[in-house]
Structure formats: C-alpha cells, structure tokens
Design goal:
Strand content: 25-35%
Number of helices: 3
CATH superfamily of the largest domain: RlpA-like domain
Structural class: mainly beta
CATH class of the largest domain: Mainly Beta
Shape: globular
Largest sheet: 7 strands, mixed
C-alpha cells in the first residue's frame, strides 16, 4: 500500500469512525496488485476479462506478514473467505471456486492481480485467501508457477461463504451457513448479516440482522462483523459517505471512499470507482 506525504489538515467528523487523514494518505489500489519486481510488464493494471471456460490459476494473498486493506473494504487476513477479481465480478460478488472435487464460495473484495502475473502463467489468475487454497489443494500458499487450476463461476450474493458441494449451487457450511443478506442503498450492494453501515442519508449507523436493518445510532458500537462508514475529506472539509468520489487537493488525484479508507483508481468519465458508481463527484 503506497502512502503519500500529508499536505492537507485533518478535518474530523463526529459521525465517522474512519481514521483517514487525507484522500492521499492511506489510499490503496488493493492488496493483491502488489509490485512483482521479478516479472516484466507490471504496471498495476488487472484484466477485467472473464475466460470463456471459467478456468483460472489460483494465487494467494494476505495473512501474517502480508495482511493489509482490500480495495472494497476489509482486511486480507488470510483466514476469511475472500478473493480479488473485483474488476471482473464487482465488489462484494460471490464466486464458487472448484477443484479436486472440492468447492469454496468466496467474496470478491480486492483488485488484481497484475496482468504481468497472468502473462507469466499463460492463464487468467484469481487471487484468493490462503484459507481457500488450503480447502481446495491442502496448501496455504500458491504462486502462479504452481499452476493450480480451478473453475470459477459467479453465484447469488445470498450464497453462504465457505466450503460447499462441488458441482452444486454453492450452499453448505464452513463460514457462514444460513446467513441472510440485506440490501444497502449506501453501498449499492447486498451485505452479510452482522455488517454495520453508516447511512448516506441520515448518517445513522445500522446493522444487518438476518435480512433486516436495525438502528445502532450515532456510532457503530460493538458486535459488527464489518463496518462501512463515512471518510474524512480534508479537500472538502467534511466527511463524505461510502462511494463518494473526491479529487484530492493534495495531488489532484481522484479517490473514492469505500467505507473504510480512500481507494483508487476512479474512472472520472464513467463516474465509477473501486466499489462501484460514485454517489457524488467533487472536482477541484
């Protein structure tokens, strides 16, 4: 994760628990798009093409020594059921990954990997949690040269994350069986039960509880499995809700609030960022 010098003051907002000093400081393009100095042609660009046969090579990212924020929110902690390829499937999408007669359902929460890694592997790549590779292949780490091939298909966002029955609909236990999602207008996607979101309309925190939003109040408090709140914008001098896009006064670079930090890139013409359509656009 690249950090830039802070040249704008902090403007705090009582409605936000997102501790970001600047649109530039702490910004990220995603954990899985890291520099690959041993490969050529790496420019921080990931492919959005979905292979016709749905076959990928898997690589792993996150975990001890490699844990960092993902561009859609959350941490690449190595034990959650996450994957990259949000540029292919969108933030928060659920995908079924199958190999060796085994299956896991993962949530796409990050951007990557770099196209240079796919060029080296001569196949599309999906970057996944070490927990996922352990469930599929019995290994906690995988690189492109291991050529561990999987089949990936997108499934309904209500499909529970974790292990599932290969060839089936992605149901089954292992990491969230029976959970019910809630639709968040603030994030413009479904979120899992237990997720807390600061509403873009009234700044109040709500928690998804088995398909129903319950009021938390002025702060997220405890008991949230994930939180998505406003981001402080020194450029605007106020906090803005998730999906808001702001052009930083520090560098003129565009960023989007993902509910946890400032992320990039932003497609200004298309008015979209790493977590989807910009809810607002604030140019200099």
């Amino acid at each position: 994760m690249r950090k830039f010098a802070l040249i704008a003051p902090l403007f705090a907002a009582c409605t936000s628990n997102v501790d970001i000093l600047s649109e530039d400081q702490g910004s990220t393009e995603g954990a899985s798009i890291g520099i690959n100095s041993h490969l050529s042609g790496c420019h921080g660009k990931a492919s959005s093409a979905i292979p016709a046969d749905d076959r990928y090579v898997i690589t792993t990212f996150g975990g001890p020594g490699d844990a960092q924020s993902m561009s859609c929110g959350g941490q690449a902690d190595g034990v959650s059921w996450y994957a990259a390829s949000r540029q292919r499937y969108g933030c928060g999408s659920h995908v079924r990954v199958e190999a060796n007669g085994k299956c896991v359902v993962l949530e796409t929460q990050d951007y990557g990997p770099d196209v240079c890694v796919e060029a080296a592997a001569h196949m599309p790549i999906i970057d996944v949690s070490p927990r996922a590779s352990k469930a599929l292949f019995g290994v906690s780490g995988a690189g492109w040269s291991d050529h561990l091939v999987v089949t990936v298909t997108e499934v309904a966002s209500s499909t529970p994350l974790g292990t599932c029955a290969a060839g089936g609909g992605g149901g089954g236990g292992g990491g969230g069986g029976g959970m019910t999602t809630c639709t968040s207008a603030t994030l413009d996607r479904d979120v899992a039960s237990g997720t807390c979101v600061q509403d873009s309309m009234d700044s109040v925190w709500y928690q998804c509880a088995s398909g129903t939003w319950i009021t938390k109040g002025a702060s997220a408090g405890s008991g949230c499995t994930a939180t998505y709140g406003f981001c402080n914008s020194p450029t605007l001098g106020r906090a803005v809700p998730p999906r808001a896009c702001v052009q930083s006064a520090a560098s003129s670079t565009w960023f989007q609030c993902n509910g946890q930090q400032w992320v990039k890139p932003v497609d200004v013409a298309g008015m979209t960022g790493p977590i989807g359509a910009c809810s607002s656009m604030s140019p200099l």
